[in-house]
Amino acid sequence: MDLKEKLVSSFMAFEERIDVHSELHDVRTEAIKNFENKGFPTKKDEAWKYTSLNAILKNDFTVFPKTESNIQYSDVKKYFLHEIDTYKVVFIDGIFSSHLSSTTHEGIDVCLMASALTKPKYKMVIDTYFNQIASKDDSLTSLNTAFANEGAYINIPKSKVADKPIEIMYFSTGSEAALMTQPRNLVIVGENSHVQIIERHQSLNDNPVLTNSVTEIFAQKRAIVDFYKIQNDNLTANLIDNTYVSQQKESHVSVHTFSFGGNLTRNNLNFYHFGERLTSTLNGITIIGEKQHVDHYTLVKHSAPNCESFQDYKGIYSDRSTGVFNGKVYVEKDAQKTNAFQKSNNILLSDKATINAKPQLEIFADDVKCSHGCTVGQLDETAMFYMQARGIPKKEAKALLMYAFSNAVIENIKIPELKQRITKIIANKLGVKMGFDL
Known about the structure:
single chain; alpha/beta; 10-stranded mixed β-sheet; SUF_FeS_clus_asmbl_SufBD_sf; Fe-S cluster assembly protein SufD; SufBD_N
């Protein structure tokens, strides 16, 4: 039995284990039918032209963990932003860990998705938001919808500011020979509200892991959302991340993606505009080597006038690694005065490293400022010579150039402690110690 057949046959058993509203049963049933019809994406699909899942799907993944694993905070402290106080929603092998989590219902809701899906008091919110902007056509999003249960539920009411950042952490312990998890996150940020969220998936050993994650983010009028994705997993971990963002009038949503680890990482990031004078920011840094593969697929759909979107993706590839950037800006006829900027800059450190870039603009309005561009090159030999001539060793000079290359994205991190953490990770990836504090 292959993985597709295992998932389809497991669906009925899954629904028997959980308590869901009848409306959700219909949503799940429709979703699993869509996945059954379409199956896993292949390279024949245009959006997956440069990314194959075939090697990963050969693993005999466990769909439901057989045992609950227990880990101590001391074992995983280094993965948290422990320098400051944060809310925490933590999962171990796909199962909520109450002793590692720090949730709240005081003024804001930071809690478990399973509770929101089953408790009557959340029914109106779930009916309004759950699965409303997630793609009904994408087979992997449909698969996640069919099995949606565990994940983070975050609801920031009108005119509230989350008093501290929220960390969503998914740990895989390796208790299964190979494990597939399907976390589902729902983030609702009310009018004039503000939240900072950090998401991380982390394996604690080298057993294969496949994570098929879906996050829906709703930003109401004048809401501010800063979302940070830290992807620095083991080389046996595979992540397919689908994030859907709905923005209303004058909202500001930023999604920053830092891809450093993992075997295969696919980031599908979709922004939909439903109001005027809003801003979308999509930033990414990718630094990978060996045979790692990172694929960024972005869509910003401008449907209203006077809106802005900014995409800035930096990639550094060594060894036999492969990068993909497929970014689309879509401007509808009524979206006049749109300002859309898209850029993908890449450095290849090896003759065997590969980057596939496909920046796209589809514009149906006539009064817009839109630009896109892509560069692929190597480190500036003149700059390298200049620094070495002034006593900077070649390794450090190379690292400084690469750090400067990605600094524009780093500067957009609004949590100082997270900025320091990302800087340290980059220094480790580049194999140097930075001689200055950032």
